[in-house]
Design a protein that fits this description.
Elements: H1 3-12, E1 16-20, H2 40-47, E2 54-58, E3 65-71, H3 72-86, E4 93-96, E5 100-106, E6 114-119, E7 122-125, E8 130-133, E9 145-148, E10 153-154, H4 157-164, H5 181-195, H6 202-218, H7 224-237, H8 240-244, H9 246-260
Parallel strand pairs: 5-10
Antiparallel strand pairs: 1-2, 2-8, 3-5, 3-7, 4-5, 4-9, 6-7
Helix pairs in contact: 1-2, 5-6, 5-7, 6-7, 6-9, 7-9
């Protein structure tokens, strides 16, 4: 199946699709998964011209799916332990990655992205994130492919509970993929400021941080996906996600983000 045929089939499922850099996991557009769509005409403009884009799927409520990423032998061993403790996963859609598997499940509830939170080398791709889909090519060379072609199943309650569990103490990480030192510094400063915001000011601080960082996305100093991940992490750290819910936090981020994109700013202060 060609990339174009694949994205058309994904769009028919209601999944939100966007292009990734060829043979890479990074978005090919500066707004990242904010550009994701199921509109056939827009998808044709990206994928029908022979450009070898990889395929990104925005995860979470936007597409009604979340993905459990099993990374290598350690991830497979962790999954075996989880299934022995809680019961087997239901038959579902599974894709082969460069060094593991993606288990695809449906979701109509808020689930945050996380790394090794539910078990070592098991990541969750959900709200505020995206996943690479077949027939994309992994940076190491292998092609993503479907290994089990089923309709995505509903996840068992134990898996959802683990994925939604609030971390006891999770450091706020700044992505190393920032396009410039100024952008990386600004990202670090803003997410730290949001994380330290006191009760009563946390939502306003999040909105302001989203606006300021989106200006740098529009000015090509940052990527949208790293900004969103950082802001969600900071809102988790300060308790806003627990208080208002992930959907409300994502709405606040989106509001500030869309406003900031209309006022580009780069590391030289140019607007």
């Amino acid at each position: 199946m060609s990339a174009l045929d694949a994205v058309r089939s994904y769009a028919k499922r209601g999944w939100q699709v966007f292009p990734l850099i060829p043979k890479a996991k990074e978005p090919a557009t500066w707004r990242g998964f904010y550009d994701a769509t199921s509109n056939p005409a827009k998808l044709d403009r990206w994928f029908a011209r022979g450009h070898p884009y990889n395929i990104g799927i925005r995860t979470g409520i936007a597409s009604g799916i979340f993905v459990v990423d099993i990374d290598g032998d350690v991830g497979a061993a962790s999954l075996d332990v989880l299934q022995k403790q809680h019961g087997p996963l239901p038959p579902t859609l599974i894709s082969r990655t460069g060094n593991g598997f993606h288990y695809w499940f449906t979701t109509a509830t808020e689930i945050p992205c996380s790394q090794s939170r539910i078990a070592p080398h098991i990541d969750v791709k959900a709200d505020g994130g995206y996943v690479v889909a077949p027939p994309s090519i992994h940076p190491d060379g292998p092609r993503y492919r479907w290994s089990v072609k089923l309709v995505p199943a509903s996840a068992p309650a134990w898996l959802v509970e683990l994925a939604q569990r609030k971390p006891e103490s999770e450091p706020i990480a700044v992505s190393a993929t920032s396009s410039a030192a100024y952008g990386a510094g600004a990202l670090h400063d803003e997410i730290r400021r949001v994380a330290l915001a006191s009760s009563g000011y946390r939502n306003a601080s999040l909105n302001r941080g989203s606006f300021c960082l989106a200006q740098l996305v529009a000015g090509r100093e940052l990527h949208a996906d790293e900004v969103t991940r950082g802001l969600i992490d900071s809102a988790t750290a300060n308790g806003l996600v627990a208080e208002n819910g992930l959907r409300a936090v994502q709405a606040t981020i989106d509001s500030g983000f869309n406003a900031g994109l209309r006022h580009p700013r780069d590391g030289w202060g140019r607007r």
